[in-house]
Amino acid sequence: MDSQGTLLTDYLKQWNAYSVGLEFCHALFRYLNMNWIKKRLDDSRNKMAMFANTSDIYEVGTLALVVWRDRLFKKIKDRLLRAVLDVVCKDRDGEMSNIGQVTGVVNSYVKLGSINKNKPLELYREDFEDPFMANLREYYGRESSQYITQHGVSQYMKQAQVRLEEEAIRGKKILDPSSLEKLKTECDLALIDKHKEMLQIECEHYLRDEKIEDLNRMYNLLNRLDNGIRPMLDVVENFVAQTGFDAIRAIPAKERTDPKKYVETLLETYNHFNTLIKKAFNNDNAFGGALDKACRRVVNENSIGRENSKSPEFLAKYCNLLLKKGAKNLEEAELEEAINQTIIVFKYVDDKDVFQKFYAKMLARRLIHNTSVSDDAESVMLGGLKQACGFEYTSKLQRMFTDITLSKDITEKFRGYLTDKSIELKVDFTVMVLTAGSWPLQTQTSSFNIPKELEGCLTHFQNYYNSQHQGRKLNWSHHLCKGDLKTNFFKKKYELSVSNYQMAILLLFNDADTLTYDNLVTLTNLKEVDLKANLDSLLESKVLLGTAATQFSVNPNFTSKRLKIKLAAAVQKETKQENEETHQSIDEDRKIYLQAAIVRVMKARKVLTHVNVVQEVLQQARARFQPSVPMIKKCIEYLIEKEYLQRIEGQSDKYQYVA
């Protein structure tokens, strides 16, 4: 075994032959091993040996290993190691090499280590594993630095993946299984950790250029390191957020108040990056979390949304567009998918109380005016909200549906009552009995003179309802009612869908050809704002002619391509004043909620510092909205004034609950 070229071949040939003889001798002297030698070893362990030194007593097979180790291995181990590492390096370089010989040599290291029963792998680790790992670090440290400098990050990541796979396969062939985890760690340090900053710098560029494959390689490499993807998560979050902010800013000025454009822009951002994350980052939950954080920032902090909580308001109005009957309603499957998409945006909304208030008002209009696209779609939306926020959030919305169902039953029973009493109404009359506390309805501002054509219907229903329910009081909300009028005055017979106020105005012209503005005020008893709004819609549609300074009359030349004309829709739209009142109502509700939360906290804790009160109230309110600290402070001052709380004397930052 003089030359290094034949060293491995000769060593392995002699080792294999020696191993066969070793096994044969061990079996031949089995009786000696199991009796005399075993007894001497047992006595040594029990400290009952007659001889002071038994460290040189071995079973025959082990003794043969000792002879090989001391007489041969120790003398050539340095040369042997160099020869093994030379073969490994040639294999890494793609040169012809007999890597199988290395496996046999390494097995001899492990076998020789078994001489030491207490530390059987000590020889293998000291004489082979440690030098092997040092060689690996030096080889890949040199190669990786040269490669990334010459070819760039993208090509380097491909090379690194190839090298990692090759080294893993090589390790399984030649290393003891106990070394594989350490091999992975050393490869990761040499090929990834050393260059991770360069990889992370490219992350934003790849996101901007949508280089999915490069992002996926970067993820797979950095994910092998502890906290390796942490910087990537920050880059992804900030990039998604900035892209979302830019998309909202890019909305044209004339479309910045369009809920459809606003929500669809948010969804485009979400869907684009949701798809990218699934492909580039193997749908890793950590990157899903980064997307959620970014989208929450975009939804609540963008240039439109942060102004007076516009995100939840626009989202509620977008839902109304989906769920309201119209010319461009989606197919059932498309509608359900669109609803599911809106729920995604809803989950990111901080001020869920704003969404709830606007959504409830628009749901009420849809249910009252029977303009919902379908009951199934409404149920899907309600189920999504309940899943996102719990039963309490949707309880009032659910009661609205219950009222509609009960109202249909009441109407049927009322018709049975009329039949039993032989009462015939001159109009087709349907009624909705709504629970006052469950419906976010505007109160009727005008004292309205009911048209004589409807007086009988209202009287008979009042009598029926009072006979069925003792102690309940009905309040008629005429400003929410509507009806259909059939015309006999025009060239064609039209059917006009009108509000009750519009109906009252039109029915007056059955008894008079012309009426002044003052006549209309007197006969309808409507306030000027309500009369003007309803009168304007009739004038704009050209059903009526005239001005406030002259007289009003029915237009004898009125024509329309449609035989059924909806005039009520014009006065059912939300006004700017109603929008402002809704926001004021939200502010008042928040104050009450915060006051109740503060009282709950203090009642449970009795004594608490100002900071702790604020923290606990913020925690409780987070599910509904994000209160400001000054708002909480004002609520605390109000409760002190009302003697629910008091400051502890000498400790101005501590409060005590007053029972």
Task: Present the secondary structure layout.
Elements: H1 4-28, H2 30-45, H3 60-92, H4 99-113, H5 122-174, H6 180-191, H7 196-209, H8 212-222, H9 230-249, H10 259-280, H11 285-301, H12 310-323, H13 332-348, H14 352-368, H15 375-389, H16 391-420, H17 452-468, E1 482-486, E2 495-499, H18 500-507, E3 514-516, H19 517-524, H20 528-540, E4 544-545, E5 551-554, E6 564-566, H21 569-572, H22 576-605, E7 607-609, H23 610-621, H24 629-641, E8 645-648, E9 651-657
Detailed description of the structure:
- By secondary structure, the chain is mainly alpha-helical.
- It is built from 24 helices and nine strands.
- It has helices at residues 4-28, 30-45, 60-92, 99-113, 122-174, 180-191, 196-209, 212-222, 230-249, 259-280, 285-301, 310-323, 332-348, 352-368, 375-389, 391-420, 452-468, 500-507, 517-524, 528-540, 569-572, 576-605, 610-621, 629-641, and strands spanning 482-486, 495-499, 514-516, 544-545, 551-554, 564-566, 607-609, 645-648, 651-657.
- The strands form three sheets. Strands 1-2-6 form a three-stranded mixed β-sheet. It has a three-stranded antiparallel β-sheet with strand order 3-5-4. Strands 7-9-8 form a three-stranded antiparallel β-sheet.
- A hairpin with an 8-residue loop joins strand 1 and strand 2.
- Helix 7 (196-209) runs parallel beside helix 9 (230-249).
- The longest helix is centred in the N-terminal third of the chain and has 53 residues, at 122-174.
- The N and C termini lie far apart (97 Å).
